[in-house]
Design a protein that fits this description.
Blueprint (H helix, E strand, L loop, with lengths): L1 H6 L3 H8 L19 H21 L5 H18 L2 H4 L4 E4 L2 E4 L12 E4 L5 E4 L2 H9 L23 E5 L2 E4 L4 E4 L14 H13 L8 H13 L5 E5 L2 H16 L3 E5 L12 E2 L9 E2 L6 H4 L2 E4 L4 H11 L3 E6 L15 H12 L2 E6 L10 H12 L9 E4 L10 E5 L1 H4 L18 H13 L2 H24 L4 E6 L2 E6 L1 H6 L4 H5 L6 H10 L2 E2 L16 H19 L4
Parallel strand pairs: 7-19, 9-12, 9-13, 13-14, 14-15
Antiparallel strand pairs: 1-2, 3-4, 5-6, 6-7, 8-16, 10-11, 15-16, 17-18
Helix pairs in contact: 3-4, 7-15, 8-15, 11-12, 16-20, 19-20
């Protein structure tokens, strides 16, 4: 195959080897037939590259043979990419009674978009990330379905992904990146883990959705309870936002109170009451944090600084009888990674219990990712080791890992609270796709595979990478602080962060944000995909092997220099 590509093999050779027809004038449904010119060979190279990598990485094959082949194809793609601008609008296609040139600037051909029939008959459209973004923006607000994906804080075109295997993601241009987003947390085992994929395929073959209970839902609830015994019952939902919304409604329903306390910088989904920003004083009501959130709704939320026990005490001293619950990320990871001060979560448990309010741990990010029982499990283990009494929050919310990359989330707690939900109690909650059997299969299999060895591996990778980025930034004199919470970590830039660390949202906002965009793009250019915002956590997986880790570490020095040369 390498010789075919190097020599510019004729269409019959390539057709026989790949199941594609590249001969000029031959037409197949869904396939734009074309001559084997530069664009055609570029397209074919990309398609072969994606196909082979899918096979190899799906098997986690890292042999020298595969790596050599991948390197060769990458070089071929790069060479062909240099000619694509010259031949845009020049491709020949079969149509009607003969060949015609497409001069319409809006046509796929004129935009440099090619089609090819992949093995198995799949049709794959290839384009550039820029073109994909322009196309998406014409029909999707901002071109994305979740705002951070738009690269708004780092600039440039978001990478439109077509495949993901192990520690790597592949964009529409056929380029691979070592991934440190891991689909924002769920990819604990790496992308497309064979056993998870097999479980999903088997579940899909039995039926995509039933609108009726299944045994898989019970098994997943049992798996959650086994890891977090305080969660005696579980209600499955589809998103983390649904989970926190349900927890808030349940807290208000069982206490008969209206007010919720949250912490600045903690994100709990796009629930109206939780899209609130801090008022002008510690115990003042919040202001709307988004258009469309009414002042009345925001006024039912009190926002206080994270890691500030005195502020929480002050709020409860003034309004304790009106507060239904405190909701918190037990280790904050949506303003960058900001671990709780020692004793902070335990103090929240004491204060809420004294005033008859509930404590909600939002472990959508940390649950089953930082340890077998999430962040609460780490604090429980520390309490046991210190000979202290074990304490628990009243309610937990889970997401991300619990769905194994598919839309599953959960709210759970003691039986007495959970049975206040419909159909047993007066607090209503429902969902057509709650407990979807295909999604549940992904979550259950991921939970079954996530053993002690998985957490040890992810912790070790996180420790190695956080130490390496720390050293690279030190080397070029960029003031910074790398902070970890279990296997989650992120970088904060600036003198204050370096000197004092980051303990709350005000500290996070005060950092040298301007240094992150050049750092991010230098990593991206080196083939490493970081979160496109300085206020996000970095994620690792068990698929981040020595090769992947080495590539990340090799990219740090140039990225550190880019950050060092950044200006406001």
């Amino acid at each position: 195959m390498r010789d075919h590509i190097r020599a510019g093999a004729d269409s019959e050779q390539l057709q026989g080897g790949l199941g594609v027809d590249t001969r000029l004038g031959t037409h197949k449904p869904g396939n734009v037939a074309r001559g084997m010119d530069d664009a055609g060979l570029r397209q074919l190279s990309i398609d072969v590259d994606v196909e082979l990598k899918s096979v190899a990485r799906g098997q986690y094959d890292s042999s020298r043979h595969w790596r050599a082949l991948f390197d060769h194809l990458d070089n071929a793609i790069s060479a062909r990419r240099q000619t694509i601008k010259r031949i845009e609008g020049q491709l020949m296609v079969a149509g009607g009674h003969g060949h015609q040139r497409h001069n319409d600037p809006n046509s796929n051909v004129a935009r440099g978009v090619c089609h090819i029939t992949r093995m198995g008959g799949e049709v794959n459209e290839m384009t550039t990330n820029h073109e994909a973004f322009l196309r998406a923006k014409s029909v999707i607000p901002g071109g994305v379905n979740s705002p951070v994906r738009a690269y708004g804080s780092v600039g440039g075109d978001p990478r439109f992904m077509t495949a993901a295997h192990g520690a790597y993601v592949t964009d529409v241009e056929g380029r691979d990146y070592v991934d440190l987003i891991c689909t924002w947390g769920p990819g604990l085992l790496g992308h497309a883990h064979p056993q998870v994929v097999e479980a999903v395929q088997a579940a899909a073959a039995r039926g995509l959705s039933f609108g009726a209970p299944t045994q898989g839902e019970t098994e997943l609830a049992e798996a959650i309870h086994a890891r977090v015994p305080a969660v005696e019952q579980v209600r499955l939902v589809s998103t983390g936002t649904e989970a926190t919304m349900t927890a808030i409604r349940l807290a208000r329903g069982v206490t008969g109170r209206d007010l919720i306390v949250k912490f600045a910088g903690c994100y709990h989904g796009h629930v109206d009451a939780l899209l609130a920003q801090a008022g002008s004083g510690v115990a003042t009501f919040a202001l709307p944090g988004s258009a469309g959130v009414t002042a009345a709704t925001a006024a039912e939320t009190i926002v206080v600084p994270y890691n500030d026990v005195d502020a929480v005490e002050a709020v409860f001293a003034e309004k304790g009888a009106q507060i239904a619950a405190v909701i918190t990320e037990p280790a904050a990871a949506n303003m960058g990674v900001v671990p709780p001060k020692p004793g902070f979560n335990k103090a929240l448990r004491r204060i809420t219990a004294e005033h008859g309010a509930l404590l909600i741990f939002d472990e959508v990010l940390t649950g089953f990712r930082v340890g077998p029982a999430g962040w609460w499990g780490l604090e429980r283990d520390a309490s046991v080791a210190a000979g202290e009494a074990v304490w628990t929050p009243d309610l937990f919310t889970f997401g991300k890992v619990v769905g194994g990359g598919m839309p599953v989330a959960a709210v759970g707690g003691p039986r007495a609270l959970m049975e206040q939900l419909a159909p047993l109690g007066p607090v209503y909650q429902a969902g057509t796709l709650s407990g979807n059997p295909v999604a549940v299969a992904a979550g259950l299999t991921t939970m079954q595979l996530a053993d002690a060895a998985v957490y040890a591996k992810v912790d070790a990778v996180a420790a190695q990478l956080s130490a390496a980025v720390d050293a690279a930034l030190d080397e070029v004199g960029v003031p910074h602080k790398v902070q970890r919470a279990g296997s989650l970590f992120s970088v904060f830039f600036g003198e204050a962060a370096a000197r004092d660390g980051v303990r709350n949202y005000a500290d996070a906002q005060a950092q040298d944000v301007y240094r992150y965009a050049p750092f991010f793009h230098a990593m991206l250019d080196a083939g490493v995909s970081l979160p496109p915002s300085v206020f996000e956590a970095w994620f690792c997986s068990t698929a981040h092997d020595e090769t992947a880790v080495a590539k990340i570490i090799a990219a740090f020095p140039a990225a550190a220099k880019a950050a060092a040369s950044a200006t406001r």
